[in-house]
Amino acid sequence: MSFRELLADVDDTVFEVLADAALIEGREVLGMFSAPWLQPKLGQIRTGLREPHLVIRVADNAGVEVKQKVVIDMPAEDGGGNYTITNIEPGGDGLVTLVLRKSP
Predict the structure, then answer these.
(1) Residue 47's domain spans which residues?
(2) Name one Pfam family in it (predicted).
(3) Which residue, 6, 26, 35, 48, has fewest beta-carbon neighbours within 10 Å?
(4) In the predicted model, what is the mean pLDDT of residues 89-104?
(5) Higher-pLDDT residue of 2, 84
(6) How many folded domains does the chain comprise?
(7) Comparing C-alpha atoms, which of 87, 8, 28, 35 is closest to residue 97?
């Protein structure tokens, strides 16, 4: 088994257990959603990223484009709701970060 195949297996397990459900233009994907303004404050860690974002696997990124609609399937108090993709940032590690903006 190659290193890339091993990492794909690890990603499958992590996403299966820990991922949040989302709909991108009606297509279901699993990803890691983060809304920075809802995160617990630990110490004085400062990051430049303030926008909500959804990290998905490269395989799920096929056909994803800026301005598409995303629905995060979780309670509104946890950041769930309707978003629009404002930027797509490949990480080079098999994951892609979709930078989001809250939609009405």
Answers:
(1) 3-102
(2) Phage_attach
(3) 48
(4) 91
(5) 84
(6) 1
(7) 87
